[in-house]
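Note to self: keep these together.
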Amino acid sequence: MATNDTFTNTNLSTTNQHRSVFLCPERLNPNEDLNNTTFSWILVAIIFITCPFTVLFNSLVIVALKKRRELEKRSNILVCSMAVTDLLTGAVTMPLSATFEVLILRQVPFEYICPIYFLVNKLMIFSLSTSSLYLLTAIAWERKMAVKSWINYRNNVTESRLTGLAIAAWLFGVITPGPPMLMVVAGAHRKFISMWLVGKIVSMISCLIAIGYFYFMIFLEVRKRDRNQINQVAFLAQTRLE
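Structure:
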């Protein structure tokens, strides 16, 4: 019986160790890289200095978009959502990252701070960055519609549709990185986690391709308009000369 209990405890200890290693693979032994901490302290100082400015500037953007009538445009719904994402980054994730670095530099036992860093900071970083990517994709689509399909812009790009896109970007930003991290905590099989991560990578690559496509279409449309204007000016000049 004692042998079985020892074997069980050993398995649980091994499982928790592997899980901890999987959660925080980048800092398995943080004391190894504490010989030269100058760069780390400089990085912490930069993060703490830039946090208030990030919060302040994005707050000003949000207030300006809400208060000034000339800025009350449909497209600014997505811009405002993007500013909220950056505001949360400066108010939450950046201070948490800097605090985590300080705790590491102070040689706080890593097993105590790793779960907090993983569940709070890493989850929020991935969620906010994914939401930002989805919002950038929506903004690129909106700009493409405004430039290329400007005749039907008001009918196709409605305020409710843009609001729905902003909400969807936030929801998918939370859904995409959240489950694999919860699977890791719950001890799910690596195969399911890998499948979800592959799907996440595919969705992010698809967003990047879509952003590139939308802005390339905008470039072609603007170039086409410039050529038409040049041809019109040349035609008018030739007509006057005749």
